[in-house]
């Protein structure tokens, strides 16, 4: 649930809450100002103050909405305004000319049916705020007031139950997708190589919801990104950081007067690039504590009039308005590790205008063959003598888990094969649950390896990013073994069979898939099956868990 929202009252306290809400003493009429912490004696007085001190007439705003509204639409608007204010209280507190776009899609999310302010009297009078609705001053007696509040309470509780039901369905959806995807009776590592390298999606398995585990994983994930060193490493990755800078600085026409959302803003560096490139507003969002440093960095560089910071998950944060551009550095090891792109997709679906763009827009994944006998021997032989002790049992993990490393470009023995292409402006969260492709690699031996048979040691997976293929100045970067090393390095898939040899012209055909881990949703399962054409009896499937 989004920051700033309170869940509905528990069943154990409903009777007390009911009594509090319909108490005849008049306490239930005390109303918090729309834009400050001030409490007024009644909702009408609060609305008058909003109009006089902040230039915002709620009734006039509701009347200006082009689409037809009912009282639930008014409830959504009230909670949208309160959530927007809660996200940036300082901005609204001193604003004498508050305005909001009259775009109904901004408060279309059902979460705006849940009160931001508990027992909010403005919600009770939602019907009277509609054009032509009765004024709260028209109620003839205190008894009638209480009856009106009881009806409003019932309506509010119905809306709340509807929202809770929708929330449960939304929370269950990812787990349901994992249940459909997971094998039923045997683990992935025990399954045989699929015939013809087809997907093994037909098998399925029991799967626990794991929502508590997901919250625990998220807590650790965002805590890690609150640390200083991880951001220092990323900023010092010049390939990464300069690509974002160059794209924005060299294509300022794309950013001029645009509203930009930075998902996972970290230190705020991309937000500041966008501001300097001409963006009229930038919303910097991060769920980790680093957001507090981002605020200070932005203030130190005098960009606080352009950039507003919001702490929270991209899926939940409430922004003041929709955006023209989303920028994000969401990529993990093997591109999809950390499962951040689905968060960008959800933010895109909620906040990006119809003609908007997500940058970088294109991500492509590649696989290539390598021959590096020394690398393999170092990985395996190391366990034969660890400070005088043998640890041969540890060798099993060498071929069971994918490795992240910078590989020697001289060990590449094939041209790369593209195995995935993702358009971040159009892809869906469901499509990212499982990415799968066939591949074909032709061995190309050069230099000292020419004319010989060499060990087929491993496959390496890497990704390339392109910001906008239609931009006037094209910018992108590669994380491959032939490119300048980045902090992402490459993902190394060591083959189980260490006796395989290949010659110039040999062809390797196979299948590779990338799936969100069943056990930890931010981890990635990489599965490879392959054969060397013309080599008899060579068929192998390798399952790599938790890249």
Short description:
With 547 residues, this protein is α+β, with helices and mostly antiparallel strands.
Written overview of the protein:
The protein is α+β, with helices and mostly antiparallel strands and 547 residues long. Helix content is 33%, strand content 20%. The strands form 5 sheets. Strands 8, 9, 10, 13, 14 and 15 form a 6-stranded antiparallel β-sheet that branches. A 5-stranded parallel β-sheet has the order 5-4-3-6-7, with helices on both faces. Strands 11-17-18-19 form a 4-stranded antiparallel β-sheet. Strand 17 (507-516) and strand 18 (524-532) form a beta hairpin. The longest helix is centred in the N-terminal third of the chain and has 40 residues, at 142-181. It is elongated. Residues 1-27, 134-146, 166-211, 215-226 and 543-547 have low confidence and may be disordered.
- The fraction of residues in strands falls at 15-25%
Number of β-strand runs: 19
So how many helices? Answer: 17
**Overall pLDDT:** 77
Terminal Cα span:
29 Å
The structure class reads: alpha+beta
Query: What radius of gyration results from the CA coordinates?
Result: 28 Å
Gross geometry: elongated
User: Mind summarizing the main beta sheet?
Assistant: 6 strands, antiparallel
Unreliable runs: 1-27, 134-146, 166-211, 215-226, 543-547
In helices, the fraction of residues equals 25-40%
């Amino acid at each position: 649930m989004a920051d700033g929202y309170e869940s509905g009252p528990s069943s154990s306290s409903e009777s007390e809450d009911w009594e509090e809400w319909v108490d005849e003493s008049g306490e239930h009429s005390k109303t918090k100002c729309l834009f400050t912490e001030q409490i007024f004696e009644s909702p009408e007085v609060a609305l008058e103050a909003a109009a006089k001190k902040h230039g915002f007439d709620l009734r006039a705003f509701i009347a200006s909405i082009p689409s037809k509204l009912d009282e639930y639409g008014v409830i959504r608007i009230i909670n949208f305004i309160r959530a927007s204010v809660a996200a940036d209280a300082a901005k609204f507190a001193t604003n004498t000319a508050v305005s909001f776009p009259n775009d109904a899609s901004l408060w279309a999310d059902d979460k705006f049916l849940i009160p931001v302010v508990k027992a909010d009297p403005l919600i009770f009078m939602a019907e009277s705020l509609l054009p032509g609705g009765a004024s709260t001053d028209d109620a003839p007696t205190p008894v009638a007031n209480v009856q009106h509040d009881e009806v409003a309470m019932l309506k509010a509780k119905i809306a709340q139950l509807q929202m809770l039901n929708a929330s449960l369905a939304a929370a269950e959806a990812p787990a349901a997708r994992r249940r459909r995807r997971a094998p039923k009776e045997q683990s992935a590592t025990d399954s045989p190589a699929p015939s013809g390298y087809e997907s093994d999606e037909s098998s399925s398995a029991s799967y626990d919801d794991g929502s508590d585990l997901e919250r625990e994983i998220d807590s650790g994930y965002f805590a890690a990104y609150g640390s200083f060193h991880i951001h220092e490493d990323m900023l010092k990755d010049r390939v990464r950081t300069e690509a974002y800078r160059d794209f924005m600085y060299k294509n300022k026409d794309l950013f001029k007067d645009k509203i930009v959302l930075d998902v996972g803003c970290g230190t705020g560096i991309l937000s500041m690039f966008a501001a300097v490139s001409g963006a009229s507003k930038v919303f910097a969002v991060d769920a980790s504590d680093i957001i507090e440093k981002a605020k200070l960095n932005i203030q130190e560089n005098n960009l606080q009039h352009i950039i507003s910071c919001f702490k929270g998950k991209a899926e939940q944060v409430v922004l003041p308005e929709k955006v023209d551009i989303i920028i994000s550095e969401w990529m993990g090891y093997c591109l999809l590790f950390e499962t951040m792109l689905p968060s960008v997709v959800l933010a895109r679906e909620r906040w990006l205008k119809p003609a908007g763009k997500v940058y970088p827009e294109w991500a492509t994944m590649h696989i290539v063959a390598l021959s590096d006998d020394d690398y393999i021997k170092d990985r395996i032989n190391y366990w034969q003598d660890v400070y005088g002790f043998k640890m041969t049992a540890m060798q099993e993990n060498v071929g069971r888990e994918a490795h992240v490393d910078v590989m020697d470009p001289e060990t590449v023995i094939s041209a790369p094969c593209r195995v995935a292409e993702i358009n971040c402006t159009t892809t869906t969260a469901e499509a990212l649950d499982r990415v799968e492709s066939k591949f074909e690699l032709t061995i190309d031996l050069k230099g000292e390896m020419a004319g010989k048979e060499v060990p087929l040691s491993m496959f390496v997976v890497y990704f390339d990013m392109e910001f906008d293929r239609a931009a006037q100045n094209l910018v992108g970067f590669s994380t491959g073994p032939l490119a300048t090393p980045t902090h992402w390095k490459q993902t190394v898939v060591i083959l189980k069979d260490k006796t395989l040899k290949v010659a110039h012209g040999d062809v390797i055909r196979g299948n590779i898939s990338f799936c969100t881990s069943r056990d930890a949703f931010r981890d990635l399962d990489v599965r490879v099956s392959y054969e060397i054409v013309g080599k008899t009896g060579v068929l192998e499937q390798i399952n790599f868990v938790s890249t």
